[in-house]
Amino acid sequence: MTDAAVPEYELYAIRYATRDAQRRDHFIGGDPHDGPMPIDYYLWVAVRDGRAVVIDTGFREEVAVRRKRTYLRCPVDTLKRLDVDPDAVSDVILTHLHYDHVGNFDRFPNATFHLQESELHYAVGRHMRYPRLAHSFEVEDVCGIVRLNYARRVMFYSGDATLQAGIRLHRTGGHSAGLQFVTVNTRRGWVVIASDVTHFYENMESERPFVTAYHIGEMLEGFDLLRAVAPTPEHIVPGHDPLVMQLYPPARPDLEGIAVRLDTPPAPRG
Predict the structure, then answer these.
(1) Position 40 pLDDT exceeds 60
(2) Which domain, by its residues, includes 97?
């Protein structure tokens, strides 16, 4: 199938939480020009012909309180404002199993979850003995995915794959052992949902990875892979950058500051 024949999806980002932070919090080795650098939390959804594929599932309010994040709204409830019924979602892509990407999994009772097998091995394996790595996971989320696997509701991958026409999975590792990112074909071409391959535009552009790292070499290679698969740098959407909400138009006027359209070209950056 040629790209011209590949289905096109509407593509949205939902901002559901935020955290005040400093520049030193987001770059391995800190930053020589320290100052405020807030971080946002998103989930993404691709929609076509009334059907939706959800990319990551966010976290719950009680987790936000415990981890001192500012919880703005439930991301799953917000999907309904985009006419996406969580009960009707049949496919959820989990880019990895960190707490801010897999919480709320139980709010999708009829979905199959798509995950790199190496990510689950990592989340239940020997490295979870170390608090520096285990801190990014919620134990009950990980156990929940194990239970879903026993219920035959997890599809595992070992590398790149096509989920369905117009949606592709790309394994990178680095930030987490089985991290994957997603490309979605839209009316402006293939858009790259980087997730945590690059938290901010600046991580990739300065080649300075984020502080949470399993394998720094794979993180740097992940930047290269994002650039290799994206039609242009403007097609790459970082996983936590507040700029996403500024560069892309709101999904609807009543969703200003809540959800933006990623299938529309971003505004130029200064």
Answers:
(1) yes
(2) 3-261
